[in-house]
């Protein structure tokens, strides 16, 4: 199959590289010339484990290439994926579809032969209809089928998720798209990943419903964690106790500082807006969004409480800035709201993150960036673990304590046991452990 991927961001680049690895001929397109020239030199603009090797291998094999010009690749293509960004629109929270619409308008004139155009970006219900309208208006002769194929990969585990997905969801309105997409995903068929063919609008909604459900699950356990602290229970045991029920499942029940990232915050908001506009509001998700926002700020107050009620004039070491480990992504990271709350309370923040500091620097101009967790802890009243990087799981706690002036270790990801932390001379504050 000859495949074009419009947009070489997270989803586009990972999907393009994985599809090339399946043996397809893939051209990844992006408007950003410097990104494309860096990709041609083998430089990957994001931190994602395994991606650099995957790209290098497929470029060397002649299956993967990069371009800013989509005309010839689209002309040749059997299948064109649209994987451009759909950020939350400023002001109203709706998904901003201008990049998707612009991509459709740009590919329209170059479509020849039967081509399947697939939206891989997360797009609200009805976007496939709009993409089809744009294509047909711009090129009435085009022989095209528009499909929806949402992506469910997680940052940090993107390649594994793409190659071994729990399921593939494909929404079509024209049956001719089915054999083309079956061929695109044939290697996964052979891996026995279930492929669900459904209608286009249903497929679009599945993506939002999946992310909203996961965000709700996290928010649920975060509220239970709060309750555990009040009544003397342990949220990790509660999560295990309920998660062993297969109907609930064990995953996404880790209490923490609230969900962040490029997907859950924007997708929950977009679903709320879509549901509101359709006259079928989803109250559970409206509440999820509100509770999660409150949660991030509450973590700031938790740290202040661990410092005896005030952080004025104190230094706080923040360990972990990215919204989760194994990424350099700072979008909607809980660390941003937490640091804001600490600075509002008069603290000086020294932070360390294994991959996120470059992106964080412009977002956190008043923070001092350290070269290691120990460097961050120098003179600090409290050390706060915000992101559960592996590098923080086996810290030399005695050494850390020895560098600090205070004795608070606030572990917002529950990666330490209280006994070990106390043995090193700390007072341990964790999440949802009331005992
Ligand atoms: C999420 C979904 O998991 C993917 O399936 C989806 O494809 C992706 O959004 C997307 O729409 O593109 P991602 O944002 O990369 O993936 O990260 P997750 O691993 O889902 O984590 C999201 C947030 O939830 C993080 O802040 C994480 O710390 C938090 N989280 C996750 C918890 O607080 N507790 C948990 O148990 C799980």
TrEMBL record:
Organism annotation: Allosphingosinicella deserti
List of residues binding substrate: 152-155, 207, 252-256, 260, 324
Gene Ontology biological process terms from the UniProt entry: polysaccharide biosynthetic process; UDP-glucuronate biosynthetic process
Catalytic residues in the record: 263
InterPro entries registered for this protein in UniProt: 6-PGluconate_DH-like_C_sf (IPR008927), NAD(P)-bd_dom_sf (IPR036291), UDP-Glc/GDP-Man (IPR017476), UDP-Glc/GDP-Man_DH_C (IPR014027), UDP-Glc/GDP-Man_DH_C_sf (IPR036220), UDP-Glc/GDP-Man_DH_dimer (IPR014026), UDP-Glc/GDP-Man_DH_N (IPR001732), UDPglc_DH_bac (IPR028357)
Pathway(s) the chain acts in: Nucleotide-sugar biosynthesis; UDP-alpha-D-glucuronate biosynthesis; UDP-alpha-D-glucuronate from UDP-alpha-D-glucose: step 1/1
Binding site for NAD(+): 30, 35, 86, 122, 155, 266, 331
Keyword Oxidoreductase: yes
Keywords in alphabetical order: NAD, Oxidoreductase
Enzyme class: oxidoreductase
Descriptive protein name: UDP-glucose 6-dehydrogenase
Annotated GO MF terms: NAD binding; UDP-glucose 6-dehydrogenase activity
Family per similarity comment: Belongs to the UDP-glucose/GDP-mannose dehydrogenase family.
């Amino acid at each position: 199959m000859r495949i074009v991927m419009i947009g070489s961001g997270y989803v586009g680049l990972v999907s393009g590289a994985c599809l090339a690895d399946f043996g397809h001929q893939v051209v990844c397109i992006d408007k950003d010339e410097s990104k494309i020239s860096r990709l041609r030199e083998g430089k990957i603009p994001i931190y994602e484990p395994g991606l650099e090797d995957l790209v290098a291998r497929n470029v060397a094999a002649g299956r993967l290439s990069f371009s800013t010009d989509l005309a010839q690749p689209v002309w040749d293509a059997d299948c064109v994926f649209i994987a451009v960004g759909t950020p939350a629109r400023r002001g109203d929270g709706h998904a901003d579809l201008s990049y998707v619409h612009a991509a459709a308008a740009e590919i329209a004139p170059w479509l020849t032969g039967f081509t399947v155009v697939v939206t891989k970006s997360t797009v609200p219900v009805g976007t496939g209809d709009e993409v089809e309208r744009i294509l047909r208006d711009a090129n009435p002769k085009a022989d095209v089928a528009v499909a929806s194929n949402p992506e469910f990969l997680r940052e940090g585990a993107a390649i594994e998720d793409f190659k071994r997905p729990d399921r593939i969801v494909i929404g079509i309105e024209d049956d001719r798209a089915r054999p083309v997409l079956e061929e695109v995903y044939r290697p996964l068929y052979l891996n026995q990943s279930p492929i669900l063919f459904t209608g286009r609008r249903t497929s679009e909604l599945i993506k939002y419903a999946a992310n909203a459900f996961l965000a709700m699950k996290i928010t649920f356990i975060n509220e239970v964690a709060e309750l555990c602290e009040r009544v003397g229970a342990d949220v990790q045991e509660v999560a295990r106790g309920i998660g062993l029920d297969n109907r609930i499942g064990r995953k996404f029940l880790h209490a923490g500082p609230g969900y962040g990232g490029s997907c859950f915050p924007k997708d929950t908001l977009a679903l709320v807006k879509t549901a509101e506009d359709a006259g079928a509001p989803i109250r559970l998700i409206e509440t999820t969004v509100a509770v999660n926002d409150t949660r991030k700020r509450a973590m700031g107050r938790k740290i202040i409480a661990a410092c005896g009620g005030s952080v004025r004039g104190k230094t706080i070491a923040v360990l972990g800035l990215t919204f989760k480990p194994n990424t350099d992504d700072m979008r909607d990271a809980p660390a941003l709201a937490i640091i804001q709350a600490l600075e509002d309370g008069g603290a000086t923040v020294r932070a360390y993150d294994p991959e996120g500091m470059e992106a964080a620097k412009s977002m956190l101009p008043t923070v001092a960036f350290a070269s290691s967790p120990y460097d961050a802890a120098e003179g600090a009243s409290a050390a706060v673990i915000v992101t559960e990087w592996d590098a923080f799981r086996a810290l030399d706690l005695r050494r850390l304590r020895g560098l600090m002036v205070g004795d608070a270790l606030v572990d917002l990801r529950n990666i330490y046991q209280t006994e070990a932390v106390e043995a090193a001379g700390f007072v341990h504050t964790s999440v949802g452990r009331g005992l």
